[in-house]
Amino acid sequence: MNRLPEDYQKQMRELLKEEYPSFIRTYDNPPHRGLRINTLKLSVSEGRQRLPFHLEPIPWCNTGFFYDHDRDRPGKHVYHAAGLYYIQDPSAMAPVEALQPRPGEKILDLCAAPGGKTTQIAAHMKGEGVLVANEISRERRKALVENLERCGVPHALILGEDPRHLSTRFTGWFDRILIDAPCSGEGMFRKDPDTRERWSYRSTRAAADLQFSILEAAAPMLRPGGRLVYSTCTFNPRENEGVLQRFLDQHPHFTPEHVPQAVHYQPARPDWIDASPSLAKGARLWPHHLRGEGHFVAVLEKRDGKEGICKKPGKLPPVHGDAKRVFNDFLQETLIEDRFPGPFTLFGDHLYQVHADLPSLQGLVVERPGLHLGQAKRKHFAPSHALASALTSESVRRSVSFSPEEDHLNQYLRGETIPIDKDKGWTLITVDGFPLGWGKVSGGWLKNHYPKWLRRNLI
Ligand SMILES: C[S@@+](CC[C@H](N)C(=O)[O-])C[C@H]1O[C@@H](n2cnc3c(N)ncnc32)[C@H](O)[C@@H]1O
């Protein structure tokens, strides 16, 4: 295993003083493991009854649970594929709890991949409002898309922008913004030892400059009275209190607020860098004080500024008659109630449901303009995996439920065709009633439409 960098140990010894021995001993222990029940799919109490794992509540997140890594492998269970939970470091659940998202709001997750916090925000929003998930890295956006689809998030717009470019397009538009910033990752050295190799004093300075530029870009996008959460997974005061002080010096209309649930955390440490004492309202999550990795969380409120400049809805590519017709035919044949009132847009022949009053997206890298409904071919409509995941078995005319132990379930996940005695047509395939994907029944066979890139063998 990679050793902890000498300079890092020296830094932590100087900062933590008498606390240092108990801090450094945490590296001898395994990391704590957590999962978050996805309340877009099921309630916490149903999740506790249904999930076959040894769960213990995480005090700072009421949908979060520790699991026992020696006995449970939730990442391999079919309920994971069905999006019933998201595996997440317990400390990483703190920033969204501090953001306090509400249904119907406009919320920006500026550094979103792989989507742990985006899916947590989506669950708080109950799928209502606009959730903009932005991720600059193309490679990492793939995991973001996959996780949002798996978790059945119906209302996200996925962008791939440099925050400085976004900033000019959404002035005063968001009620809440999360910046879960790229950082030197000191808080992850225990869980992910590879990150140790990339660390140096210089890398922490470069990270601080990048974090400052991301905060600067986010500031104008928040409406007056809006809430911004800044979080990192590093202990480094230069990247935490230091970046915030530099930001507040130039943006006096932002004020630090107390992080909710502070009783579970330690206060931030402005005294380490001679910053404003008000920054102590932020929180530090330490592995020698709680069961999780290192994290930093701060809440800022905006007191002033411009409000909602981009009120004018943007124009998206229109939906031509053929696409509308095949989609409507599909809806009538497959769904019991039409839960998709639009508006819609077409990207190529892919149909999306979008939010009614989005500003123009022209010139932006758009990974998903909204919920991907499927592909509108000339004569028929092929529903998407994202649509299957956002539905329930009660909302469709035909569904088949397999139990986790059934052979047919494994066959479905492997992508095989399955003999079946059911009515012809698109059929929602579920595990215990929770959607996994599509199949199409014809002549006594279920043709498998589980996405090729997700196919696998259950253990
Ligand atoms: C700590 S991770 C985000 C984790 C994510 N919020 C989650 O909970 O799953 C930080 C992200 O910032 C992205 N990033 C890197 N450089 C960036 C930049 N210049 N502007 C915005 N984001 C950047 C990284 O690609 C990375 O995905």
UniProtKB/TrEMBL annotation:
Residues 23-303 form the SAM-dependent MTase RsmB/NOP-type domain. GO terms for biological process: methylation. Keywords: Cytoplasm, Methyltransferase, RNA-binding, S-adenosyl-L-methionine, Transferase. One of its GO terms (molecular function) is methyltransferase activity. S-adenosyl-L-methionine binds at residues 111-117, 135, 162, 180. Transmembrane segments: none annotated. SUPFAM superfamilies: S-adenosyl-L-methionine-dependent methyltransferases (SSF53335). The active site is at residue 233. Gene3D superfamilies: 2.30.130.60, Sun protein, domain 3 (3.30.70.1170), Vaccinia Virus protein VP39 (3.40.50.150). CDD domains: AdoMet_MTases (cd02440), RsmF_methylt_CTD1 (cd21147). Belongs to the class I-like SAM-binding methyltransferase superfamily. RsmB/NOP family. This is Methylase.
